[in-house]
Amino acid sequence: MTERVVVDLDHLTRRFGSFTAVDQISLEVYEGEIFGFLGANGAGKTTAIRMLCGLLLPTSGGGHVAGFDVLTQSEQIKKSIGYMSQKFSLYVDLSARQNLEFYGAAYNLDRRTLADQIAALTQRLSLGEFIDRPAGSLPVGWRQRLALAAALLHKPRILFLDEPTGGVDPVFRRTFWGLLYQLAEEGVTIFVTTHYMDEAEYCNRISIMHAGRIIEMGRPFDLVRDHGAANLEDMFINLIRAQETTGATH
Ligand SMILES: Nc1ncnc2c1ncn2[C@@H]1O[C@H](COP(=O)(O)OP(=O)(O)OP(=O)(O)O)[C@@H](O)[C@H]1O
Ligand SMILES: [Mg+2]
């Protein structure tokens, strides 16, 4: 992890009609950091990530990703980042390899680079056995690895992962996080959402969102200590419940 800021947000806001899904969030993420973006269902995480990935325009506020402006440089942002969406976005009838070829073409990789990257990622993510099977037939853990491979094809320096381990078994989750750690050690910045508190503990820092706002941010163990909680899960639940009893809901 370096001191270089690669994501900065300044009062980033997104409304849908009169509803504010993301409400003035500000944060900085450092190069090589694993940043956990936590929050209850509907807190606004996916909406925020879509703005960071250049897929949705903010209503107000702004920010930078990989040095590019989220308001005006979405095309440059898309080329610089890898994104794993919360919804499964691979083509179920195409094989794992064909999916990677499709995404590689979308990133304009030349044939040689694409072939090398597919071979490297197949090995790194242990996808060999599954590479010629239809993506839709893969067990969930393997599908998610394939989606990670697709997000890594163009060697992005920042990865946005929206619940990459949803529905994945504990053994797969552990190996998946092993891969994320390796990537972070290579200097890749990882911005990840999860509802699993064991995964939140693996993050360098986390933020916690509620009703569109960031209500807490820091290193996992500092937060547990500062709140006098038994563990991260208790801290998270107490914090969200306290927000709900003070009426700070949508
Ligand atoms: N296109 C849209 N139009 C209207 N409302 C939307 C739209 N997209 C999201 N929302 C609303 O914004 C709020 C935040 O949704 P979002 O998907 O960002 O939450 P989330 O934190 O990712 O939740 P989850 O943990 O369930 O994935 C929700 O109330 C959702 O219904
Ligand atoms: Mg979401």
Strand-helix topology:
Layout: E1 5-16, E2 19-30, E3 34-39, H1 45-52, E4 60-65, E5 68-69, H2 74-80, E6 81-84, H3 96-106, H4 111-124, H5 140-152, E7 158-162, H6 170-185, E8 189-193, H7 197-201, E9 205-210, E10 213-218, H8 220-226, H9 232-245
Give a verbal description of the structure.
- The strands form two sheets. A six-stranded mixed sheet has the order 6-7-8-3-9-10, sandwiched between helices. The protein has a four-stranded antiparallel sheet with strand order 2-1-4-5, with helices on one face.
- Helix 3 crosses helix 4 and helix 3 runs parallel beside helix 5.
- The mean pLDDT is 95.
- It has a domain of 172 residues: P-loop containing nucleotide triphosphate hydrolases (Rossmann fold, 3-Layer(aba) Sandwich).
- It is globular and about 55 Å long.
- The protein has 250 residues and is an alpha/beta fold.
- The site of magnesium ion has 4 residues, from helix 1.
